[in-house]
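Hi Prof. W.,

I finally got the Dihydrofolate synthase/folylpolyglutamate synthase prediction working! I wasn't sure whether to trim anything, so I left the full sequence exactly as given:
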Amino acid sequence: MTNDDGAYRQALDFLYDRINYERMTSGTSRYPFRLTRMRELLQRLDLGHWLHGDESGPHVPLVHIAGTKGKGSTASMVAASLTAAGIKTGLYTSPHLYDLEERFRVDGELCRPADLVRLVDTVRPLDEELIAEDKGAASFFELTTALALLHFHRSGCGAVVLETGLGGRLDSTNVCRPDVTAITTIGLDHQHVLGDTLAKIAAEKAGIIKPGVPVISGVVADEPADVIEQVASNQNARLLKIDRDFSIDWKLKPDWGSNVEFHGKTSPLSASLATTLAMEGQHQSRNAATAIAITQVLRDRLSLSIDDDTIAGALANLCCEGRIQRYRLNSGVTGIVDAAHNEDSIGALCDSVRNRATGPVAIVFGTSHDKSADRMLELIAQLAMQVDLRTIQLTRFQGNPRWRPPAELMAMVPDSIVAKAAVNENAIAACEAALRTVSPDGTLVVCGSFFLAAEAAPWMRSNES
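And this is what came out:
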């Protein structure tokens, strides 16, 4: 079956027709996240053994990860380590860059289109039952979560890693029974749903913490860290915190990536684990520290056969598309595509550009209407004080209706870089204009949205030397 097959298109249409909450812009009450329907859907799929509080069926080791940024990379690191140890591992992440099947991976392999059709054919009649019983149509994310777990069950996975979609407490993944939970970072994003302070956002994400289940935290700011510590205490869940129970040393490699050394300071964490990271940025070293701690706690809790050399090798070989992804373009230009779309992730990207760029820099920026574009542009303006910024092309993506008009972005550009800003409604034309300003030997960065990253990456590949 190809991606153009009629049955495949019908399966995608069934799922995408359920996307509505992502187009709303304000008001928590307008986001009808619920867990009851999610639990019932899994029970009707005979997947009740995945549910928290259900001890009736065979248990598959499960890791549940939340966070403002870094949760997808961390989840990928944990899954890669488990796969490298010979454990068939399902990984559920979101969003996807190109194809929906990227959300459902088994040992790194995407769900095949034919398998997706069969999964939808199984779930669709059960969804129709819920509608007929006035229990409401399942949301897009409820459906994809059910599809993921069904795919992992049918694939015979021996472990599963789940990334939350939005928040944690009311996220559809939060019906599952975890063996380890983790919160990577807390920052300001999705405030219209999760709350307008770090403490409120932390409380939502800490909703994944379960009674007696160990939790790993990569959160360092006092306000959200205190909330997580209090929730863990209330749930009698052992908390292991970065910079207290474990830490990581980080050093840039000359070309790309970094050398890191993990230090565990409490049992069952290893005293030392050294490796390299193919993924760029100091923030990825902290994600790696969290992932190593998760894997080692899971290993100890379930007596899994995973040695430290296996973990180190998995991290050294792992790359995630759209995460400060490098391209070697013509004229010696370094292209970078990053899906960074909030203040913290743009900050991490700017740190990496500051560390790597030796020549002129051009930026192509476009984002969604519900993101804090003003703060992201302020961080880019701060970067411009330390690098030779030639242009910032303000653009939009084409494949999703959530784009913010480039003219609105222009009104937010700080005065210090407004003379270098230009509006370009076409993302590819924006990339081409930006490339001309940094050839030869400069750096071209595309950022602000997963949707923009997905449109720019094929252009980057077509211009590789």
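Residues 282-302 form the longest helix (21 residues). Does that look reasonable to you?

Thanks,
D.
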